[in-house]
Amino acid sequence: MLGEADRTEGISPVIGMEVERGSTSTVESPTHETETHEKDELDIPWQVIVHNDPVNLMTYVTMVFQRVFGYPREKAERHMLEVHQNGRSILWCGVRERAEFYVQQLHGHLLLATLERVV
Amino acid sequence: MEIRRKGEALEISDLDPFLAELLRQIPGSANAEGQSEAEARLFTKPSAENEICAEWKSYVEPELRRLFHSATETVAEDLAQLNGNEKSFRNRTLAIPFEHADAWLNALNQARLVIVAKYKFSDEELNDHDRSPIGSRRDLGLFQVNFYGFIQEFILREMQNG
Questions:
Q1: Which of residues 56-85 of B touch A (CB under 8 A)?
Q2: Cα angle for residues B154, B35, B153 (degrees, 5° grid)
Q3: End-to-end alpha carbon distance in chain B
Q4: Dihedral of CA B36/B25/B139/B130: which sign?
Q5: Complex ipTM, two decimals?
Q6: Chain A interface includes B1 (CB < 8 A)
Q7: Which side of chain A, N or C, has fewer Cβ within a 10 Å radius?
């Protein structure tokens, strides 16, 4: 099974900022105005999921995981077995652009892969 | 039939005409044109979200089509070694340059997926490796899927051995 570290690799959330503005010299009694600037939508992480497929060979799937994600053989095999036994495995989690890149690579190797928002 | 690594190539020797013909059919078998289910399996949806799927179809799918086509073309070129002497029933030898191993894995996978989609093989059928003899076109399709899988296993083993 995946450990927590496996699932959060590559996440880079955008954090809201708090900006303090100073007064101008024409105002006798300076006032301080605090503005909270928060990004409307946090960069929600996306998961790369591989689904079971009775055609792709287990050794082939392991090789693809090693090649696409750079995982060591043991970790790649663990994910392959998770796909085989549980029907799916979360291979990676992080920003959308990279998740799309990984899914494209997996589709290029003809694996059943999707990206999903982390809920 | 014998398969072994020979220098910078994977050599399939003592290939009887029947198996040679099955190999020759790899590029044709990988062609999903006009087969909606096979097409859907080769170009699967990347997400449940429509916006992502629409972008994917426009930008990623053409790339994937080029990749798959390139792989089957490379395999077709290698298979040209089996052409000629069409009426000869002697066994053949096929040398697959090691640098083409990825293209072979890809084309074999395409062919296996298209055949499985075409005949709608069940998981039980796909796991029944002792099924014989070949009595119909469908049985031949299952034999092809298993034979191509065997070739894939060999290529993968040799890739791991470096």
A1: 60, 63-64, 67
A2: 5
A3: 23
A4: negative
A5: 0.92
A6: no
A7: C
